[in-house]
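Our consortium's second objective concerns turning raw sequence data into structural hypotheses that experimental partners can test. To show how far this objective has progressed, the report includes one record in full. It was chosen at random from the queue rather than selected for favorable results. The single chain below, 63 residues long, was entered without modification.
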Amino acid sequence: MDAPVGAFFTIWGEQFDDTHILNKVANDNNEVVMFVNGQQNFEYENYVMEDGDVIEIEYRERQ
């Protein structure tokens, strides 16, 4: 069964996309970034997970 990352946030009633993670919103100073297996990924909520994926989502100061 293919499941995008966003499905989990939907089930939890939380928001996740390129500008939102839970109650955090990207702005001029902060950003939402996602890494899959150490590589930055821009699919965010649409990324379909594969077995063994290591997914990291960060809300951080813009670089």
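The partners drew two points from this record. The helical segments are 5-11. The chain has one domain: 5-61. Both points have been shared with the crystallography group to help prioritize constructs.
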